[in-house]
Amino acid sequence: MRMKLTLALGLVVLAVLNFGIYRNERFIETGEEVYFELAPVDPRSLLQGDYMRLNYKIVNNLRAAIRIPATVDESSLNAEEIPREGKIVVRIDERRVASYQRIWEPGESLGENERLLRYSQEGRHVGSTSFFFEEGRGEAYEKARYGIFKLGKDGQTILRALADKNLVRIEPGTKEKSP
Known about the structure:
The chain is of the alpha+beta class. It has helices at 2-30, 57-65, 138-141; strands at 32-37, 42-45, 49-53, 86-92, 97-103, 114-119, 130-132, 146-151, 157-163. It folds into 2 domains: 1-30; 32-163, no CATH class. It contains 3 helices and 9 strands.
């Protein structure tokens, strides 16, 4: 009996995991590809390997809109002053680059080139906050100026890659072997 229960629970866990994977793969297939201008923060973490800590120009515009100076200690702010999460309106230009327009009010209609974008954690995040890459390949990502995202109709995003100033996807070559 115990074996059957364990097997049944294992199958339920596998089904839930596979559904999550399927849902993310569908989102990647159907989401709209857009670019967010980067403001890179930290290109390396000794404990986690090579990665780039990411910030976005859109976040800086959002922080200004909800009056959070970049230099302020956010722990000292009154939590009621900052919307914990919500949606903003971004405009997609002819190059597919998203730019901040305004905070979205529920029920508000969008213009032709406008999309919704979710933000969370007191207006500090609109997408992934870090991009991990294989050790020794950090030099290729130093020229990153944009994050390439899939953007869903509900404003959710998935970071797919990084791009240079010309919006060309960065794909580092093979890693050189040490002698």
